[in-house]
Amino acid sequence: MIPLRDNIPTQRVPVVNYAILAFTSIVFAAQVFHEDDPGGPVERYGMVPARVFHPDRPLVVRDEVPELDGRNVVIVERVREAAPSAVPPIFTLLTCIFLHGGWLHFLGNMWFLYIFGDNVEDRFGRIGYLLFYLLSGVAASAAHLFTNADSTVPTIGASGAIAGVMGAYFYSYPHAKVVALVPIFFFLEILVLPAPLFLGFWFLLQFVQGIGSVTATEAGGVAWWAHIGGFAVGFLVSMLLSNLGSLRPKVQATRPQAGRIRTLRDRSY
């Protein structure tokens, strides 16, 4: 399901959310520029669990490199020592959240942040939202770190931090609606869904996949527990601060103006 927009207006321009989007975009552009460098930003700023727990131990990387063998191209595996971390390994729990593994990874994360981040910034305030975003990212990295302690694969992506934003949105706006593009068999439908249903389904998917990854013989390409940890931290921090009266008032929802968009209850919406 791809969110297109929600029905929660913003009270003021989400300056911090735009700044995060801009900074992450600049970092991704730098990654693209160095994409042919085997010891580039991913190895230097990505979070490698084994390196965090054993910073003095050399890290071995296996690269698959295409080579010409006569008239045929073959894939050859080369073993080398990974590039050293550009910062103390413990700090990569933070730096890794600004890196991405490709265009789809980057665009998907930035779109979700654009949809949900502005409303969460409204509740936390600008400085509070920045601190919350960074905290969620570090907590998500820690969740992956402790569930994959021996992994030598660099962990990158803003997904965990954005999961924290989604957890905060889930708690703060239980009556919100999300206009989403939903694949139904061979067709794409635009539906207006309750935000808790949209976000709850997303979290359930992460949880099921995370449980499956515990017994998997090989690590997959998605840090499921980073998503789970980020979402849980976002939800719990929002609940705690709300109970303490430390968050800004909620913004009232408006009726989604989506023309003849179908919903779960009213197909003439």
Give a verbal description of the structure.
The structure is a single chain. By secondary structure, this protein is of the alpha+beta class. It has a single domain, classed as Rhomboid-like fold, CATH 1.20.1540.10. Helix content is about 50%, strand content about 15%. Strands 1-4-5-6 form a four-stranded mixed β-sheet. The chain has a two-stranded antiparallel ribbon with strand order 2-3. A hairpin with a 2-residue loop joins strand 4 (about 175-185) and strand 5 (about 185-195). It is globular, with a radius of gyration of 20 Å. The model is unreliable at about 215-220 and about 260-269 (pLDDT under 50).
Brief account:
This protein has 269 residues and is α+β, with helices and mostly antiparallel strands. It is 49% helix and 16% strand. It has one domain: Rhomboid-like (Rhomboid-like fold), CATH 1.20.1540.
SSE diagram, text form:
Elements: E1 2-6, H1 15-33, H2 41-45, H3 49-53, E2 60-69, E3 72-81, H4 92-95, H5 103-124, H6 126-147, H7 159-172, E4 177-184, E5 187-194, H8 195-214, H9 224-243, E6 262-263
Parallel strand pairs: 5-6
Antiparallel strand pairs: 1-4, 2-3, 4-5
